[in-house]
Amino acid sequence: MYTDATFQKLKSISELIVLNMEPKNSSNIVWRYAALERGVRVLIESQCRPVCSNCLSSCCCRADICKETFNSTLLKKLHGEKESSHQFSDRYGWLTERGCGLALGRPPVCYEFFCEDVLARQPSNTHRYVLKTLGQLISHSGENALGEKHLIDIRSDEELETVDIEHICEQINEARSALEHIQYFYENGELEHDGLEQLSKIRLPTAPLRN
Ligand code: SF4
Ligand code: SF4
Fold first, then answer.
1. Is the predicted pLDDT of residue 1 greater than 50, yes or no?
2. Of the residues 69, 100, 104, 111, which should be mutated to test ligand 2's pocket, given the most ligand atoms within 8 Å of the CB?
3. Is residue 146 in a domain?
4. pLDDT on residue 4
5. Mutate to test the pocket of ligand 1, among 49, 116, 118 (most ligand atoms within 8 A of CB)
6. In this structure, is residue 82 part of a structural domain?
7. How many domains would you assign to the chain?
8. Which of 118, 138, 174, 192 has the least CB density, counted as fewest CB within 10 Å?
9. Which of 114, 108, 36, 34 is nearest to 65 (CA)?
10. Burial class (CB in 10 A: 0-12, 13-18, 19+), 129
11. What are phi and psi of 144, to 5 degrees?
12. What is the pTM of this model?
Protein backbone atom coordinates (compact mmCIF):
# COMPACT_ATOMS: atom_id res chain seq x y z
CA MET A 1 0.00 0.00 0.00
CA TYR A 2 1.26 3.52 -0.82
CA THR A 3 2.01 5.95 2.01
CA ASP A 4 0.65 9.52 1.65
CA ALA A 5 4.17 10.76 0.87
CA THR A 6 4.69 8.13 -1.85
CA PHE A 7 1.26 8.84 -3.31
CA GLN A 8 1.93 12.60 -3.40
CA LYS A 9 5.29 11.97 -5.08
CA LEU A 10 3.74 9.73 -7.75
CA LYS A 11 1.00 12.30 -8.26
CA SER A 12 3.57 15.08 -8.72
CA ILE A 13 5.55 12.96 -11.21
CA SER A 14 2.44 12.10 -13.23
CA GLU A 15 1.45 15.80 -13.17
CA LEU A 16 4.88 16.75 -14.49
CA ILE A 17 4.63 14.18 -17.29
CA VAL A 18 1.20 15.45 -18.33
CA LEU A 19 2.27 19.11 -18.08
CA ASN A 20 5.10 18.43 -20.52
CA MET A 21 2.94 16.48 -22.98
CA GLU A 22 1.52 18.06 -26.08
CA PRO A 23 -1.98 19.36 -25.33
CA LYS A 24 -4.01 16.85 -27.37
CA ASN A 25 -7.28 16.46 -25.51
CA SER A 26 -9.48 17.82 -22.76
CA SER A 27 -8.15 15.48 -20.05
CA ASN A 28 -4.78 17.17 -20.49
CA ILE A 29 -6.50 20.51 -19.81
CA VAL A 30 -8.12 19.10 -16.65
CA TRP A 31 -4.71 18.05 -15.26
CA ARG A 32 -3.10 21.38 -16.10
CA TYR A 33 -6.00 23.35 -14.61
CA ALA A 34 -5.90 21.16 -11.47
CA ALA A 35 -2.17 21.76 -10.97
CA LEU A 36 -2.70 25.51 -11.39
CA GLU A 37 -5.68 25.57 -9.01
CA ARG A 38 -3.70 23.67 -6.37
CA GLY A 39 -0.86 26.22 -6.54
CA VAL A 40 -3.22 29.21 -6.44
CA ARG A 41 -5.24 27.80 -3.53
CA VAL A 42 -2.20 27.11 -1.38
CA LEU A 43 -0.80 30.63 -1.90
CA ILE A 44 -4.12 32.42 -1.37
CA GLU A 45 -4.82 30.44 1.78
CA SER A 46 -1.40 31.30 3.17
CA GLN A 47 -1.98 35.02 2.50
CA CYS A 48 -5.61 35.22 3.68
CA ARG A 49 -5.69 32.75 6.56
CA PRO A 50 -4.81 35.29 9.29
CA VAL A 51 -7.89 37.38 8.42
CA CYS A 52 -10.29 34.72 7.06
CA SER A 53 -9.80 32.34 9.99
CA ASN A 54 -11.26 35.04 12.29
CA CYS A 55 -14.17 35.88 9.99
CA LEU A 56 -17.13 33.94 11.32
CA SER A 57 -20.20 36.16 11.02
CA SER A 58 -19.61 37.93 7.68
CA CYS A 59 -17.91 35.15 5.70
CA CYS A 60 -18.24 35.76 1.95
CA CYS A 61 -18.97 32.08 1.12
CA ARG A 62 -22.55 31.41 -0.05
CA ALA A 63 -24.38 28.18 -0.77
CA ASP A 64 -25.61 29.45 -4.16
CA ILE A 65 -21.97 29.96 -5.24
CA CYS A 66 -21.11 26.48 -3.94
CA LYS A 67 -23.96 25.02 -6.04
CA GLU A 68 -22.29 26.27 -9.23
CA THR A 69 -19.76 23.47 -8.72
CA PHE A 70 -22.46 20.98 -9.85
CA ASN A 71 -23.31 22.83 -13.07
CA SER A 72 -19.83 22.94 -14.56
CA THR A 73 -18.45 19.84 -16.31
CA LEU A 74 -14.88 20.85 -15.47
CA LEU A 75 -15.55 21.63 -11.80
CA LYS A 76 -17.41 18.31 -11.36
CA LYS A 77 -14.41 16.43 -12.76
CA LEU A 78 -12.12 18.29 -10.38
CA HIS A 79 -14.00 17.83 -7.11
CA GLY A 80 -15.56 14.48 -8.06
CA GLU A 81 -18.58 14.95 -5.77
CA LYS A 82 -22.36 14.65 -6.28
CA GLU A 83 -24.98 17.07 -4.91
CA SER A 84 -26.11 14.20 -2.64
CA SER A 85 -22.65 14.17 -1.03
CA HIS A 86 -22.97 14.15 2.77
CA GLN A 87 -20.29 16.87 2.82
CA PHE A 88 -22.56 19.29 0.95
CA SER A 89 -25.34 21.08 2.83
CA ASP A 90 -28.21 23.15 1.37
CA ARG A 91 -27.55 25.82 3.99
CA TYR A 92 -23.76 26.05 4.04
CA GLY A 93 -22.77 24.45 0.74
CA TRP A 94 -19.14 23.25 0.97
CA LEU A 95 -18.33 25.50 3.92
CA THR A 96 -17.09 23.71 7.03
CA GLU A 97 -15.81 24.98 10.37
CA ARG A 98 -12.32 24.84 8.88
CA GLY A 99 -13.22 26.74 5.69
CA CYS A 100 -14.08 25.43 2.23
CA GLY A 101 -14.31 21.63 2.06
CA LEU A 102 -13.23 21.50 -1.61
CA ALA A 103 -9.52 21.17 -2.37
CA LEU A 104 -10.20 21.45 -6.11
CA GLY A 105 -13.08 22.52 -8.34
CA ARG A 106 -14.09 25.76 -6.59
CA PRO A 107 -15.73 28.41 -8.81
CA PRO A 108 -13.16 31.03 -9.99
CA VAL A 109 -14.96 33.77 -8.03
CA CYS A 110 -13.94 31.98 -4.81
CA TYR A 111 -10.32 32.86 -5.64
CA GLU A 112 -11.04 36.26 -7.13
CA PHE A 113 -12.86 37.98 -4.29
CA PHE A 114 -10.96 39.69 -1.46
CA CYS A 115 -12.89 41.77 1.06
CA GLU A 116 -11.74 45.19 2.29
CA ASP A 117 -10.33 43.66 5.49
CA VAL A 118 -8.02 41.34 3.54
CA LEU A 119 -6.91 44.12 1.16
CA ALA A 120 -6.36 46.60 4.01
CA ARG A 121 -4.03 44.09 5.72
CA GLN A 122 -1.74 44.04 2.66
CA PRO A 123 1.35 46.12 3.48
CA SER A 124 1.66 47.98 0.15
CA ASN A 125 0.05 48.70 -3.23
CA THR A 126 2.39 46.10 -4.72
CA HIS A 127 1.14 43.45 -2.27
CA ARG A 128 -2.48 44.37 -3.11
CA TYR A 129 -1.74 44.19 -6.84
CA VAL A 130 0.05 40.84 -6.52
CA LEU A 131 -2.79 39.36 -4.43
CA LYS A 132 -5.49 40.52 -6.85
CA THR A 133 -3.48 39.15 -9.78
CA LEU A 134 -3.06 35.83 -7.96
CA GLY A 135 -6.85 35.73 -7.52
CA GLN A 136 -7.40 36.19 -11.25
CA LEU A 137 -5.13 33.37 -12.46
CA ILE A 138 -7.87 30.73 -12.43
CA SER A 139 -10.35 32.93 -14.22
CA HIS A 140 -7.69 33.97 -16.78
CA SER A 141 -6.82 30.38 -17.62
CA GLY A 142 -10.35 29.52 -18.80
CA GLU A 143 -11.30 32.64 -20.76
CA ASN A 144 -12.84 32.26 -24.24
CA ALA A 145 -12.65 28.46 -24.19
CA LEU A 146 -15.43 28.10 -26.76
CA GLY A 147 -16.13 31.42 -28.46
CA GLU A 148 -16.74 33.78 -25.55
CA LYS A 149 -17.71 30.94 -23.21
CA HIS A 150 -15.53 30.41 -20.15
CA LEU A 151 -14.15 26.92 -19.53
CA ILE A 152 -16.18 26.48 -16.35
CA ASP A 153 -19.40 27.34 -18.21
CA ILE A 154 -19.06 24.22 -20.37
CA ARG A 155 -21.95 21.92 -19.47
CA SER A 156 -21.17 18.54 -21.08
CA ASP A 157 -18.28 16.19 -21.93
CA GLU A 158 -19.11 16.54 -25.62
CA GLU A 159 -18.85 20.33 -25.42
CA LEU A 160 -15.64 20.06 -23.40
CA GLU A 161 -14.06 18.07 -26.25
CA THR A 162 -14.70 20.97 -28.63
CA VAL A 163 -12.94 23.74 -26.66
CA ASP A 164 -9.89 25.49 -28.10
CA ILE A 165 -7.28 23.33 -26.33
CA GLU A 166 -4.19 25.20 -27.63
CA HIS A 167 -5.67 28.52 -26.51
CA ILE A 168 -6.54 27.24 -23.03
CA CYS A 169 -3.09 25.67 -22.58
CA GLU A 170 -1.47 28.95 -23.59
CA GLN A 171 -3.51 30.83 -20.96
CA ILE A 172 -2.74 28.19 -18.32
CA ASN A 173 0.97 28.55 -19.14
CA GLU A 174 0.72 32.35 -18.74
CA ALA A 175 -1.01 31.84 -15.41
CA ARG A 176 1.63 29.32 -14.25
CA SER A 177 4.42 31.70 -15.18
CA ALA A 178 2.72 34.51 -13.22
CA LEU A 179 2.20 32.11 -10.30
CA GLU A 180 5.95 31.40 -10.17
CA HIS A 181 6.67 35.14 -10.06
CA ILE A 182 4.11 35.58 -7.29
CA GLN A 183 5.70 32.74 -5.29
CA TYR A 184 9.07 34.49 -5.71
CA PHE A 185 7.52 37.77 -4.53
CA TYR A 186 6.13 36.21 -1.34
CA GLU A 187 9.46 34.50 -0.61
CA ASN A 188 11.70 37.50 -1.38
CA GLY A 189 9.54 40.58 -0.85
CA GLU A 190 10.04 41.91 -4.39
CA LEU A 191 9.20 41.02 -7.97
CA GLU A 192 11.88 39.65 -10.29
CA HIS A 193 12.99 41.96 -13.13
CA ASP A 194 10.43 40.60 -15.64
CA GLY A 195 7.81 39.81 -12.98
CA LEU A 196 5.70 42.90 -13.60
CA GLU A 197 5.66 42.16 -17.34
CA GLN A 198 4.37 38.61 -16.70
CA LEU A 199 1.78 39.73 -14.14
CA SER A 200 0.57 42.51 -16.46
CA LYS A 201 -0.54 39.81 -18.95
CA ILE A 202 -3.10 38.82 -16.31
CA ARG A 203 -3.95 42.21 -14.78
CA LEU A 204 -2.66 45.76 -15.15
CA PRO A 205 -1.74 47.71 -12.00
CA THR A 206 -4.25 50.45 -11.13
CA ALA A 207 -2.06 52.29 -8.60
CA PRO A 208 1.65 53.20 -8.41
CA LEU A 209 3.62 50.19 -7.18
CA ARG A 210 6.14 50.35 -4.35
CA ASN A 211 7.42 47.56 -2.15
S1 SF4 B 1 -12.38 37.28 2.27
FE2 SF4 B 1 -13.12 38.61 3.92
S3 SF4 B 1 -15.33 38.18 4.10
FE4 SF4 B 1 -14.39 36.49 2.94
S5 SF4 B 1 -13.88 34.92 4.52
FE6 SF4 B 1 -12.04 36.20 4.22
S7 SF4 B 1 -12.20 37.80 5.81
FE8 SF4 B 1 -14.24 36.87 5.60
S1 SF4 C 1 -14.83 28.84 -1.27
FE2 SF4 C 1 -15.88 26.83 -1.12
S3 SF4 C 1 -17.42 27.13 0.49
FE4 SF4 C 1 -16.78 29.18 -0.20
S5 SF4 C 1 -18.27 29.75 -1.81
FE6 SF4 C 1 -16.49 28.81 -2.79
S7 SF4 C 1 -17.03 26.62 -3.04
FE8 SF4 C 1 -18.41 27.52 -1.49
1. no
2. 100
3. yes
4. 43
5. 118
6. no
7. 1
8. 192
9. 108
10. buried
11. 50, 50
12. 0.87
